[in-house]
Structure formats: C-alpha cells, structure tokens
Amino acid sequence: MADLQKLKNKKRLRKSRSVRRGTRGTAERPRLSVHRSSQYIYVQAIDDFSGRTIAAASQLEKDLRGECAGKPKSEAAKLVGARIAERLKEKGVEAAVFDRGWYRYHGRVKALADAAREGGIKF
Predict the structure, then answer these.
(1) May I ask the CATH class of domain 2-118?
(2) Is the pTM for the entire model greater than 0.90?
C-alpha cells in the first residue's frame, strides 16, 4: 500500500513539474498557483524571481467563508477567483501566468480561472 502511495506522489510531482516548466512569475506578471483540497480551494500570486507571494485568497477567509456557505464548490471557486483578481488589481497587476499544478483544467480550477479573467486579469 505504501509503495502505491509513493508511486502516486511521484506521478503528481512529475505532472506538476511539467506544467510549471514553462511558467515563471514576475512582479508585473505573477504566477497564479492553485491548490485544491477535497473541501477548499486556495490561490496565490507568486513572484518567482524574488520568491515572494504578492497576493493570496482562499475559501477559509472569514468574509468568504460566510459567502461560500451552502454553495457548490465551483461557485465558491468563482468567488475566490474574483477575490484574487480584485487584490491583484489593487496592487496594479493586469496580467498573470496561470499555474494549475497537477490538477486538470476542469471544474473548480476552471471556474477560478474564468472568474479571475472576468475580474480583469489576463492570462
């Protein structure tokens, strides 16, 4: 059983590295890195050259937690995407590089990206 888990982790790591291979974030165009758990979704805007997080948003924030209560996960992902777009606009960021990690561009990940685009962030 432990060997199977190690194999799955290696596959996930390899997939996320292949997705990130061509994406580097800068201060003007940060990398939007998505993490999806079974319950929540998180996103960070990262400047890879300085190694700093410019902005972040997640379902666990107090004001978003109230808005997301009782809604489907994809609707909550849309709210998180709109929130990260709002925070990046405040910092003067107009464009970003989308990093989906090893997750498929489908469902909650796609909903978050579409909401960020609607918020004015260009990918």
Answers:
(1) alpha beta
(2) no
Domain-by-domain residue ranges, the chain? 2-118
56-65: buried (b, 16+ CB within 10 Å) or exposed (e) per residue? bbbbeeeebe
Give the CA distances from residue 23 to residues 33, 48, 63, 80, 121, in Å, rounded to whole numbers and listed in that order.
10, 9, 31, 22, 16
pLDDT in tens, 54-71: 999 999 988 888 888 888
CB 59 within 8 A of CB 40: yes
> Residues 38, 119: contact at Cβ < 8 Å?
no
In angstroms, the CA 82 to CA 18 distance is 27
Residue type, 6: K
85 touches 121 (CB < 8 A):
yes
Predicted pLDDT at 1: 61
**Separation between Cα atoms, residue 81 and residue 84, nearest integer Å:** 5
Calculate mean pLDDT across residues 41-53. 90
